[in-house]
Design a protein that fits this description.
two-stranded antiparallel ribbon, single chain, 4 helices, Porin, mainly beta, 13-stranded antiparallel beta sheet
Amino acid sequence: MEHPPLSGFTRDSRLERVGEREFAVDVTREWCIGDAANGGYSLSLGVRAIAETVPLPVPLTSTAHYLAPVLHGPLRIEVETIRIGRTLARGVARLVQGGRECVRVLAAFGALPAEPAPPLYAEEPPLAPAPLEECTALVLGTPSGIPGHVRAQLDTRYDPESVGWARGRPTGRSRLAAWTRLADGGEPDRFLLPLVADALPCSAFELPGVTERVLTIELTVHQRAVPAPGWLCCAFRADLVADGYLGEDGWIWDSSGRLVAESRQLALLP
């Protein structure tokens, strides 16, 4: 039986074990914004490394603190398992480049039920994008022109009410809705969700004066289900932008309409 070819995302995230709990990977420019690796991609690498050392399959929650930019080139990942129990396993990954720790990832792994129960929402999540056929395919950098290499690896269709800044008409509402998938046809998995949570343009670009790349301080992703094959449906919003900081919330649904991930990040405005 022939196996489908590896997606570029899986190929470029493949870890080489160089010690009992130490891994190496070469970060390519394809997963960068400008010269620095996308924060969601860095989080995904840390989650992959922890997954190699714990017995449970699903990263129920993962958090990255960004200490310095990860540049394209060789990267080492050091893993420490904190505690392994019957239902939860926790670990820390340190992403090190040039002798300097750049990102620290903390994750808790567990398992999800084979037949998940219908979700109960205390408050309805934000509106999902318009139907796929009504959305526009774009490959975007930042308003100031920094190239978004990572976004070329995704086939993303933006809702007509999103990314007004890319058309020279910011909406004034920090909302973004889109459909996305890997451009080479690779299917979503537990490691792609952290990337998608951070790879699309910041919703705050719709606000006046937010024209530079925002710098993520901390990113957390909660995985609520294993994604089904096909498109991912995304919505992001930044409800408070003040004093040089913004907090952005995200929701990701799979092709079956199930909520598969939630995200929250704190970012610094230049």
